[in-house]
TrEMBL record:
This is Tripartite motif containing 25. Residues 19-60 form the RING-type domain. Residues 161-200 form the B box-type domain. The gene is TRIM25. SMART domains: BBOX, PRY, RING, SPRY. Belongs to the ohanin/vespryn family. Neurotoxin that produces dose-dependent hypolocomotion and hyperalgesia in mice. May directly act on the central nervous system, as it is 6500-fold more potent when administered intracerebroventricularly than intraperitoneal. PANTHER family: B-BOX DOMAIN CONTAINING (PTHR25465), E3 UBIQUITIN_ISG15 LIGASE TRIM25 (PTHR25465:SF77).
Amino acid sequence: MASLVEALSMFGLEEELTCSICLCLFQTPVTTPCGHNFCLPCLEMTWMEFEEKFSCPQCRASFETRPELKKNTVLCRVVEQFQISQDGLSKGTCEEKREKADSSPTEPRSPSPVVCDSCLVVDATKTCLTCMASFCQEHLGPHLESPAFKCHQLVPPVKELQQQKCQSHTKLLEFFCQEHRVPICCFCLLSHKTCSTTPLKEAKEAKELQLKKRLTELSALNDKTAKSLEQVRTQQKQLSNTTSRKLDLLKSEFLQTLALIHEEEQNSWKKIKSEEKRVLDKLEFVHTVLGKKKNEIQMERGEIEVILAEMDDITFLKSNKLRQISFSDVFVPKIELDQNVLGAVHQKACHLKEATKRFLNISREESIKGAFIYSFTYWDGFFSVFTYGLHILFQLYFATQFTLDRHTAHKNIVLMEKCTKMSVTETVQDYKQHPQRFLSFSQVLSFQCFKKGIHYWEVDLENNNFCAVGICYGSIPRRGPESRLGRNSSSWCIEWVNNKVSAWHNDKDTCLPTSKATKIGVLLNYDGGFVIFFGVTEKKIFPLYKFKIEFVEAVYSAFWVFSNGATISLCQLKS
């Protein structure tokens, strides 16, 4: 009997030594001004939510300022003695439970856990829909042990529990109104007595079934859409490949047409020049004959004037016996250009132009709906030999951008404007050694190479003297006399030296007519096997020279500058 009384007294003491916040024995107990005791960590955590007024968690007494909390040493010793008397079977402190919860590897904490409504510290493990509160494992004990709570409905922790209550009756929402599509409580059934209502769980299951069915339909539709997208993408690729091949064929056809026109122009030019030479030779012969006759006449006049000046009669008469030369009348034959030759050449060019115009007009009318064919309307001057329309054609279809390769530049070459402009200087540049660098001549190659297709680029020449523009293989020598552009079998170029323009290849040159053009265009047809150099002005483009080449390696654009005042700049063409 005495032991029972002692046990009851110990139970009452334990209640007095238990923190009302964490429901554990005090750890570092402190006393508020109103006289209630709490664990220091529990009270500080509770007051962290307050900024101005602070209150006692037990009696709700308010404090204007935050009280200064000091450890209650007497109460602390009482707790220690009580724990010793319990033989180490105390329930443990709140701090130990926190550490245990933090160190538990099997219970991962949710990003925003539901806190126990009793202690406001430990995470809740269950929510009671009857009590409308959440409890941790410690405070869930009565619901699990007491028969009075057996009928309470326990569920996993629920956030925002107030949303589970009816706003009108503060009762649990247990039913769902099908007509109004809202959850209702048992008291709401009276106002919804004419409506079709089902338990909330059944309504959820029905909705889940409906959504799962919809999800299955959407999945099937998504798979079908994905297949359709793949088919469309395949069609796009096939279309792009087809048009790309057609465009390549189209470029080749037009380039061949240009080559034919260029050849016809050269033949016509040679015919007119040949006729000019024939007439000039005849006129030169007549001029020589007339000049000789004029000299003889002047000589005869001089002799007669000397005789007439003689005063002695005998001497005069003797001189009069000199031979007399008879001169025929001056006759200049009619020498003219053969108008039949000139007319035939001109007529052929006109017929070619008119036939081309008619053909293009017919083609435009037949394919006016095609945007690509319609773009031919910009080529009105296309077949007027080498007019500016040709320049537009080159830029539209063949324009190529590239930069200069610093590793190939001679040490007296200065590269500027992001390696698109070059000049020569007497100052040796601080370039690193590289096997591709030119060592004997101030030359540089492009960084990009060309292995196929048609390409067109332009360069600006400032003070175009002692410079060259051309192409070469990557295997061109880098040192010695044979490394200069045009002085080997691996390079082709147009060169300007002392106002003399020449085409160079394999150490052989061809003199070209001088030109005032300061911009040079280069048209490379790798597959067609030729390169054409053009002079470009504001109003026209004209050919300088054409090399026919059977390419066997990748081709690079190549440049040489020797004069200090000369610079070469790559033009930025808009394709």
